[in-house]
Design goal:
The complex is a heterodimer of chains A (167) and B (385). With 167 residues, chain A is an alpha+beta fold. Chain A has 2 domains: 41 residues, no CATH class; 86 residues, Alpha-Beta Plaits. Helix content of chain A is 22%, strand content 13%. Chain A has 4 helices and 5 strands, in the order ααβαββαββ. In chain A, the strands form 2 sheets. Chain A has a 3-stranded antiparallel sheet with strand order 2-3-5, with no helix packed on it. Chain A has a two-stranded antiparallel ribbon with strand order 1-4. By secondary structure, chain B is mostly helical. Chain B has one domain. Chain B is globular and about 65 Å long. Chain B is built from 13 helices and 2 strands, in the order ααααββααααααααα. The chains are: A alpha+beta (167), B mainly alpha (385).
Chain lengths: 167, 385
């Protein structure tokens, strides 16, 4: 009986229409305003995009306050990587107790941005930064090492296509 | 209503041609705007912005506008209308796209079907009245048409409503024939569903229009509109409201709109009956859907929302003698149509699609008995009042 009455009087439909209607009016009233924003659309190329704090961008190595690489070459990231894009060679340095990477290769073309490497790292020496404009014209641009313009410590220089490069 | 002066057959047909052209222009203005509104309103309902740029970020007109305004640190000028030129893009795309006819398709029927669908929805406007009487009179200086009135309706038939209902149900042939002629599984399934659905909903649709017919005692479009707006007893008002909601529900089903869009259930049937269509043939189906929306809105407006009169449901008799507001005006009619088109999009953005058996049970178990009750109550009111 209750179900029959519910079907007879479309109360749920009216509730739904009220909900979407209020959202429509809110967005309509604020679509032209800059400060108040009820909609979730980000007008990306023109307006800098706001990313979630846990957004998974490109892999980056961190340095500590003295400018020393935090990585100690435990190879945890290399082992856990599902696509095996990380290659580490370790070396020694005077005055440093732990090992030091002499080579840290990251093949971004195969990376799936799963963040396993960051989770496995016991020394918080790598993170995924917030850079997502990573497309490039050449394959070599995806091989990131410790030296050169494409290195593990800085952001990837934005490609020619990039809108944020325009200014 | 001022009676039209006596006109010769030639003058009448010439006038009708002019009016038909005017109606087609009206359709081809409203339909693209509706497609734009659909993008925008759906976006707003879902907390998005909808279409904001056309033809790319770099070279497009709106792209340049967007970029310049954002660089100045401002929200782009007329931000809500930035996507408006998109309907031009839509039209160009439909016209320029390659028109593919599948090898195994039934060629003749495949070509006829979209035209049938389109014609059935446009011809209905012959009997729809935008305004009871002359919108304007041609000045005497005009060569042939001097002194003739340009009426707000093309024909003033005795059986206008019957004509509309008869023609509107031809539209399903376009869908079913197109589906069959495609010689493919998904269109066929879509067409079959569509046939069953539209045949089912035709019954409550017609029955829900029966209440106004009983209350007014006429099938003439202008007469019905006038009597429903001005002469109804207040007792009939709740009945007419219920009748209106029933009609609107069936109208959604008739136009294959969202809560009832079984024929083109995207997640089940690719695109339903127009899977094999491309180019302007698909465009005809697309246009027909939107014109059907306008037709359903126009009928709902004239019979239940008062049409060119300001207030519906017999309430208009209280403002009859107020200057300007009391007189019928085509603007009210168009505004009400626009509101109902918005409602179409609003409902699409709110209610998810029914399952197929649910659609059928809603039609046969709930709507038809309910409309029958409404018809009985309407007769009681008619004879009591």
């Amino acid at each position: 009986m209750k179900k029959f009455l519910k079907t007879l009087f479309p109360i749920d439909i009216a509730k739904g229409l009220k909900l979407t209607g209020t959202h429509f009016l809110k967005v309509l009233g604020t679509a032209n305003r800059r400060k108040v924003k009820m909609h979730v659309t980000q007008e990306y190329p023109e307006v800098p995009v706001k990313l979630a704090p846990r957004f998974r961008g490109r892999l980056t190595m961190l340095k500590d306050e003295q400018g020393e690489i935090k990585c100690v070459c435990c190879l945890a990231c290399e082992k856990i990587c599902p696509t095996q894009v990380i290659t580490i060679e370790s070396g020694k340095k005077e005055g440093r107790k732990t090992k030091l990477p002499t080579r840290y290769d990251f093949e971004m073309e195969r990376c799936i941005f799963c963040e396993f490497c960051v989770e496995s790292c016991g020394f918080d020496s790598i993170i995924l930064n917030h850079q997502f404009e990573l497309a490039a014209y050449n394959r070599e641009d995806f091989s990131i090492g410790m030296l050169g313009s494409q290195n593990m410590f800085d952001l990837t220089p934005a490609g020619k296509f990039s809108y944020s490069d325009e200014d | 209503m001022n009676p039209a002066p006596a006109m010769t057959l030639a003058q009448t047909s010439l006038m009708a041609i002019f009016q038909a052209v005017a109606v087609v222009i009206f359709i081809f203005i409203v339909v693209p705007l509706t497609t734009f509104a659909e993008r925008k309103v759906l976006g707003y309902l879902q907390d998005r912005l909808g279409a904001t740029r056309v033809a790319g970020h770099r070279i497009g007109l709106t792209g340049a506008l967007n970029r310049g305004m954002w660089k100045l640190g401002k929200v782009p000028f007329l931000s809500a209308l930035r996507g408006l030129p998109m309907f031009i893009g839509d039209i160009i795309k439909l016209l320029v796209k390659e028109d593919i006819i599948p090898d195994k398709a039934d060629r003749a029927i495949f070509i006829i079907a979209p035209a049938l669908s389109m014609i059935a929805s446009v011809v209905v406007f012959a009997a729809i009245s935008f305004y009871p009487g002359a919108l304007f009179t041609f000045p005497k200086a005009f060569p042939v048409l001097g002194g003739l009135p340009f009426t707000g309706f093309i024909t003033d038939m005795n059986v206008g409503l019957l004509f509309i209902l008869g023609i509107a149900s031809v539209g399903v042939y376009g869908i079913v024939l197109g589906a069959w002629a495609s010689n493919s599984k998904y269109p066929l399934l879509g067409g079959l569903r569509s046939a069953a659905q539209i045949v089912s909903y035709e019954v409550p649709l017609t029955l829900s229009l029966l209440a106004p017919v009983i209350l007014t005692g006429t099938l003439n479009f202008n007469e019905m509109t006038r009597k429903l707006a001005t002469e109804m007893p207040l007792v009939a008002m709740p009945l007419l409201v219920v009748s209106f909601l029933l009609y609107l529900t069936c109208g959604f089903a008739e136009t294959n709109r969202m809560p009832f869009d079984m024929p083109e259930a995207e997640n089940e049937l690719v695109a339903g009956f127009h899977t094999e269509y491309s180019g302007m043939k698909f465009g005809f189906f697309y246009l027909a859907e939107y014109i059907n929306m306008i037709v359903v809105s126009a009928l709902a407006t004239s019979f239940f929302l008062g049409g060119p009169f300001l207030l519906p449901f017999g309430l208009h008799k209280f403002v009859m003698h107020v200057p300007y507001l009391g007189a019928p005006n085509a603007i009210w009619f168009v505004l009400k149509i626009i509101f109902l088109l918005f409602t179409f999009i609003w409902v699409r953005g709110t209610i998810p699609r029914y399952r197929y058996d649910q659609i059928m049970s809603v039609a046969w178990k709930y709507l038809i008995p309910f409309t029958l009750i409404v018809v009985v109550v309407a007769s009681v009111i008619h004879y009591a009042a």
